[in-house]
Write a structure and sequence with these properties.
The protein is α/β, with parallel strands linked by helices. The chain is built from 9 helices and 9 strands. About 35% of the residues lie in helices and about 20% in strands. Strand 1, helix 1 and strand 2 form a beta-alpha-beta unit. The protein is globular, with a radius of gyration of 17 Å. GO terms for molecular function: phosphoric diester hydrolase activity.
Length: about 230
């Protein structure tokens, strides 16, 4: 089984997260895929940023949803980087992308880009929200989807199956072998996040995970050996 190492917001442990600089570094480091986050701007652009507000990761303040793309472009996202839109990331790197969406509205906007550019084979879509996963699956036939959870109940595998997700991405600090075995028995892959230490890597091996999301490029090399 192929073990995947996914760059979390690029390689956010060493670069400004969710910036073109971070994504290019992740690709150059040999990450198997690049994870990023999408929010809609006031004028409907797919802005690449994790938080709903710009405060933590830029020199601005306020909700993304209340700013136009032009206004977002004026912000410094770290080391002079600008807030990218999804299409710019696609053009800046060739790596497979795991795009996390926050809601159904983002799913609809993302579906338009995926269908227009033929991205089913390159872009996997993830979300904490079952309804967003179900919506992107409805809008983009054949899309690969991931249900994410930090805390979950015993029905998490059933939830993934209900929205036709192929993969579960689960918090490595709360993941158990029982959940992994249940998911694998149902044909689902399991990715652990965020895997940043040797202890995490040992847990990845013990749990027989299919992949790991990490902030640091060196985890890929260690992960290849450990997993």
């Amino acid at each position: 089984m192929s073990f995947l190492t996914i760059g979390h917001r690029g390689v956010m442990g060493v670069e400004p997260e969710n910036t073109l600089r971070s994504f290019v570094h992740a690709e150059q480091a040999g990450m198997d895929a690049i994870e990023l986050d999408l929010h809609l701007s006031k004028d409907g652009a797919l802005a690449v940023m994790h938080d709903a507000d710009v405060d933590r990761t830029t020199d601005g303040s306020g909700p993304i949803a209340e700013k136009t793309l032009s206004e977002l472009r004026e912000l410094d996202a770290g080391q002079g980087e600008r807030v990218p839109v999804f299409e710019e990331v696609l053009d800046a790197v060739r790596s497979p992308v795991q795009a996390e969406i926050k809601d159904v509205a983002a799913a609809r906007a993302l579906s338009e880009v995926m269908l227009r550019r033929g991205l089913v084979d390159r872009v996997e879509v993830s979300s904490f929200h079952d309804e967003a996963v179900a919506e992107i699956a409805r809008l983009v036939p054949g899309v690969r989807t991931v249900l994410i959870a930090s805390r979950w109940r015993s029905d998490v595998v059933d939830r993934a199956k209900a929205v036709s997700a192929a993969t579960l991405a689960l918090n490595i600090r709360r993941l158990t072998l029982e959940v992994v075995e249940q998911a694998h028995a149902e044909g689902l892959k399991v990715i652990g996040w965020v895997v940043n230490t040797q202890d995490h890597l040992r847990l990845v091996r013990a749990l027989r995970l299919d992949g790991a999301t990490t902030d640091y490029p060196e985890i890929r090399r260690a992960g290849r050996f450990t997993a």
